[in-house]
Design brief:
226 residues, mainly alpha, two-stranded antiparallel sheet, 9 helices, 5 strands, globular
Length: 226
Amino acid sequence: MGQRFSYLQLFLFLTVIVFVITFIQLGIISVVLDKLGLTPNSALGLLMLFLFGSLINLPLVRVKAEAVDTHLARPMRGLLPGTKIPFTGSTLIAINLGGGLTPILFSLYLFQTTGLDITSTLAGIGCVSLVSYVFSRPVAGLGIGMPIFIAPITAALVAIIFTQITQTPEHSPPLAYVSGTLGVLLGADILRLKDILKMGTPVASIGGAGTFDGIFITGIVAVLLA
C-alpha cells in the first residue's frame, strides 16, 4: 500500500531506475525478457510503463477510516523508509498504474499467451498470497511493509514445483512472475485493506509506494530463479 505522491515516491522512482540500469548493465534484464518471450521493443515499453506509471495513482473509492492505532506493529524495513502525512478521517483507495494495474494486465497477457495451467496458476497465486500476508505488517500512518525477497523466492519455488508436477518446465518463468506479482498484490495489499483502514492513511494505493519495490523486484527475481 502506498500513499499520495511525495518525495518518497520520487526517491523510490529514482531508486528503481538505478536498479533497472544496473540490471541492464549486468545482462539480467535480457535474461528475464528472454524467459518471458518479450521482444526488445515491447519490453522497453513495459519497463517505461512500470516506472513512470509508479508515479500515478488511479482513485477507486473513498471510505471512512480510523485514526492511527498506536499498537500496530513497528515499521519493517523495505527498500525505502516511509514518511507520515496528515489524516482527515477517510482513506482514498486507489490503484497504482505501474505497481498495480500494469502487473495485473501483464500477468493476464502471460496467462493467455503462454498456456499456463489454470489450476497451477491459482495455486501459485494462493501460496504467494498466503506467504505475503503472513510476512507483511501494517506500519502506523504509512502502509504495509514486507521483507523484499520473501515473495520472489516463494514464487520461484512454487513455479518450479508446480511445473515439475505438470511436466511443463517451460512454464516456470511466466508462472513465477504471475504468482509472485499477483500474490504480493493480493496478500500484502488487498487482504490488508482492513489494516489500512485502521492506520490513519489518507491515500492507500494498491501496488503503490509501500509495495511497488517489492512487486517490481519480485517479478524480476522470481523469473531469474525459476
